Give the backbone structure.
Amino acid sequence: MLADLIERQRGKLAVYGHPAEAIRVVVSPYRICPLGAHSDHQYGPVLGMAVNAHTFLSFVPADSSEVRITSENYSGELHFDLSAPEGLESSSTPWGRYAAAAAQALSDRLPASPRGIIGSVAGALPGGGLSSSASVLLSYLYALAEVNGLEMSPSELVSVALRAERDHVGVSVGILDHAAIVGSRKGHLLSIDTREVSWQALPLGSAAPDFRLLVVFTGISRNLAKTGYNQRVKQCFSAARRLATLTGKADAGHLGDFSEEEWRIHGDRLPPEEQRRARHFYGERSRVERGIELWKEGDLETFGRLMNASCESSISNYQTGSKELISLQNILVDTPGIYGARFSGAGFGGCSIALVATDEAEQIRSHVEHTFKSTFPQHAGRARAFLVESDDGVRIV
Ligand code: GLA
């Protein structure tokens, strides 16, 4: 199945006469985050996992510094010159801003006469919740690095991707998406240290039942830059600055710089909104720590309950969740056989994920899809539920 999709993508360039052996394909997975929501920009621990839904970018090296890309999902052709990265945002198509951001973030590493790519990109799913944007960004970074002979370690790649999103796309994200897409290993959960930009793949304890991941797309896509995401991040930084004053820790700048005890002693002196954001952060931090142990023990039932608690905190403390997402969460929590569920990604639109036992997975999928569509008939055309599994991180084939 995956091999067919890769060959199909290769075929997109082959029709222009490029020899098959010269065409490379970047296979860049989407990701989920079962625990650790909105913690990555505050140096909190997070858990991520790549799943088997992908962006595919087939490409050949260009003869010059030009980049030309067509998309299966959007019309128009993306065209720019890699040797003139200034002003790229305005010259590219709206869907091309991630390619432009990749080129800009790489610009100080590219050779004096950089080589562009001729490519064709296809994404499996609409944007919202599974980090299709980071998945596509990493495909461009991989392809551009490859044709220009840039050797980058996985953590360097994640740092360049982060710069691209923060400086050129304009969202104050952390490394969750990029680290999960780069570092994941099939069958493992990725424990990510967002301060050190490092990670560890955790095998699932042998006592665990066989499980699948249910993804439920509400039918509503969203562009993170246009949500309340950046404002929440600012509130977290403001809370951290206040805690720094209260604790006398002049160098502290992130919520992750404070201990549980410092939060307990000083937390109630924060303004109400900032206190809620911080409460979410410290709750997530302990859920991630506990979640790591439960995963290694194979206790998916208790792990799932932590996911439910994490989502409750996202709603009440971090104040994310559209009416569709909150209603979907209620449907998921009320469905027998689901270990746990939460919003996927930022929780402003998009989708939710749930852990389900393999032998009941299809029945649960169809029940949840039917219930959600009957609750929101206006989204029935686009909403859907589907099952995925864990996957390896981004690669070139
Ligand atoms: C989005 C961002 C991530 C992370 C999540 C919430 O997906 O891109 O960096 O903050 O939201 O956990």
Remarks:
- The longest strand covers residues 45-61.
- Residues 272-297 form the longest helix (26 residues).
